[in-house]
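Protein in question passed on here:
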Amino acid sequence: MKLNDIADNPGSRKQRMRVGRGIGSGKGKTSGRGGKGQTARSGVRIKGFEGGQMPMHRRLPKRGFNNIFRLDFAEVNLDRLQAAIDAGKLDAGSAINAEALVKARVLRRAKDGVRLLGRGELKAKLTIEVHGASKSAIEAVEKAGGSIKILAPKIPAPKADAEQQAS
């Protein structure tokens, strides 16, 4: 292969259609936009307009709400903890908390706190400080000889969308 043999795939480069340049171009007069009216103009059309019929988004009932005080926990399973200990990223002797998990890259960020879940097996004896834990996770940690301290939940500031709804 030579440099002068290199070419684009056929159809990958296409010139834009010049509209409104006379009847002979095939895209003259209305420029492919049809007749008059809203759809022939530039700008936004009515989205979701169904010809005067009650639109689908108004026919369906409203349901549920967004709790602005909901806490978003970073979840970590027992198997991830055990893998981090086996890899030497976490020290089983010291207390394992949100900062230690982020530093060891088990979690990317702590969010509103850490919640421990019970998937996998735990062999190491650990002292864990988290904001929440499932029953199976607590049982597994205590079975391995460790202990869990459940921290008080952080009091969250209302989410940004709540401020917009209020005003």
Q: What stands out?
A: The two ends are 65 Å apart (CA to CA). The mean pLDDT is 88.
